[in-house]
């Protein structure tokens, strides 16, 4: 598989969906055969990314490919792959309705017996950690134990999947549900 090309494609899709922009959000894939992580570069519009822009980082943490500078939230992705050996993609963004829960340091718990509750029994909120530091992923191992997503306190949300399609799709579903809950609260 051409990981860089695949990642560039799904980064464009994530921006088309309005989940990320040139400043916020990042997406990665891991090649489990080499341990290399492919990640979006900082401060580039995801809509314009090509495979040459995608940063390749080896297991030692050294960038070995890509014209851009690896995302400052790289440590978050690295920790998610370490916590979940079964996944191949990590998606982080500041989707507004889920991020509202993160800013309030509240777990997101969908009402029981909704379709979403079968996928997300809960999305746990991690304590605040400054981006660009290892503090950002404090507690992620427990939060992602049997769950596909976690809230980053005071910051945003991270979702994992076997591939970018699954990680983005799950996050989009949770975000839409959080939006519906907010509308319900407003209307009724
Ligand atoms: Zn962020």
Average pLDDT score: 95
The rounded Rg comes to 16 Å
Give the uncertain stretches in residue-range form: none
Let me know the CATH homologous superfamily. Answer: Class II aldolase/adducin N-terminal domain
CATH topology: L-fuculose-1-phosphate Aldolase
* Strand content range: 15-25%
Largest sheet: 8 strands, mixed
Enumerate the strands of the largest sheet in spatial order, edge to edge or round the barrel. 4-3-2-1-5-8-7-6
What kind of oligomer do you see? single chain
Let me know the number of strands: 8
For the terminal residues, how far apart are their CA atoms? 49 Å
Shape: globular
Number of domains: 1
Q: Could you give a quick summary of the protein structure above?
A:
The chain is of the alpha+beta class and 188 residues long. The chain is 32% helix and 18% strand. It has helices at 3-16, 74-83, 96-103, 140-143, 164-187; strands at residues 26-31, 36-39, 55-57, 63-65, 89-93, 124-126, 149-152, 156-161.
Q: Which features would summarize this protein structure in a list?
A:
32% helix, single chain, eight-stranded mixed β-sheet, 5 helices, L-fuculose-1-phosphate Aldolase, binds zinc ion, alpha+beta, globular, 188 residues
């Amino acid at each position: 598989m051409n990981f860089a090309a695949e990642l560039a494609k799904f980064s464009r899709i994530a921006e088309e969906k309005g989940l990320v922009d040139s400043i916020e959000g990042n997406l990665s894939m891991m090649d489990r055969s080499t341990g290399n992580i492919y990640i979006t570069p900082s401060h580039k519009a995801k809509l314009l990314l090509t495979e040459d822009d995608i940063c390749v980082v080896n297991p030692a943490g050294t960038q070995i490919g890509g014209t851009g500078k690896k995302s400052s939230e790289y440590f978050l992705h690295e920790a998610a792959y370490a916590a979940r050996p079964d996944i191949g993609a990590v998606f982080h963004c500041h989707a507004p309705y889920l991020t509202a829960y993160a800013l309030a340091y509240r777990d997101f718990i969908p009402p029981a017996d909704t379709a979403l509750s079968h996928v997300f029994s809960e999305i746990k909120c991690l304590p605040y950690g400054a981006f660009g530091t290892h503090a950002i992923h404090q507690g992620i191992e427990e939060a992602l134990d049997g769950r596909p997503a976690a809230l980053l306190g005071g910051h945003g949300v991270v979702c994992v999947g076997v591939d970018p399609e699954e990680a983005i799709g799950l996050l989009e579903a949770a975000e839409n549900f959080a939006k519906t809950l907010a509308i319900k609260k407003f209307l009724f």
